[in-house]
Design brief:
With 218 residues, the protein is of the alpha/beta class. It is built from five helices and eight strands; from the N terminus they run βαββββαβαβαβα. β7, α4 and β8 form a beta-alpha-beta unit. α3 packs parallel to α4. The mean pLDDT is 95. The structure holds zinc ion (ZN). Zinc ion binds next to loops.
Length: 218
């Protein structure tokens, strides 16, 4: 499997607050950084996302009296998980992991910047109607297939992959280039939803193995 000009690597939220020791740590999240760096080298087209909240963001438990992180809250657009304060605009926690080495990335999509709406997906905010502009950007660049890596598998990666499919792209999640939060069975549910939507699931070795000999099928 060799990425070509109509393929894009979409790297989701490789940010300090999602790393071990961060405000909303994804277990072993830092382990994906070298994998993402290797993957990025085989893609000419790389897009990064950055969770990017104002301090008064609706997804922060601290902004709801008496609420605790990880409880659910009914909001006008549906059920929202309340999170610890994370990825506040301009803070060190919102910065990309220092080891991320993808300087040729052409585009950074910042998401979750509306105070009243969360955005797990790189394509569509949690109200399911506000677009980030990513689908149009990818289409204008002739992208047909989106490969996904990053954090967390069962939230921002899964939602982005599902929305990539809904927007008409092929979508492939690179499992070992992601790590999960796995809250109340969310990881198993995410893989089920992804399979049902026709999202492919591969390991990074499929993309990183050396070029096949000319007379071998690849
Ligand atoms: Zn967030």
């Amino acid at each position: 499997m060799r990425p070509g000009p109509d393929d894009c690597l979409l790297v989701i939220d490789v940010q300090n607050d999602f790393m071990p020791g961060g405000a909303l740590a994804v277990p072993h999240g830092d382990e994906i950084v070298p994998v993402v760096n290797r993957l990025a080298r085989v893609f000419s087209h790389v897009v990064l996302t950055q969770d990017w909240h104002p301090a008064d963001h609706v997804s922060f438990a601290a902004n709801h009296a008496g609420a605790e992180p990880f409880q659910m809250l009914a909001l006008p657009y549906g059920q929202q998980v309340l999170w610890p304060v994370h990825c506040v605009q301009g803070t060190a926690g919102a910065a990309f992991h220092a080891g991320l080495d993808v300087s040729h990335a052409r585009m950074v999509i910042r998401k979750g910047h509306h105070a009243g709406v969360d955005s797990y997906s790189a394509f569509l905010e949690a109200d399911r109607s506000t677009r980030t502009g990513l689908a149009g950007y990818l289409r204008e660049h002739g992208v047909k297939r989106v490969f996904l890596a990053g954090l967390a598998t069962d939230y921002c990666v899964a939602w982005s992959a599902l929305d990539a499919r809904a927007a008409g792209f092929e979508a492939v999640v690179i499992e070992d280039a992601c790590r999960a939060i796995d809250l109340n069975g969310s990881l198993a549910q995410a893989w089920q939803d992804l399979a049902a939507a026709g999202v492919e699931r591969i390991q990074s070795a499929r993309l990183l193995q050396p070029k096949a000999e000319p007379n071998q099928p690849n």
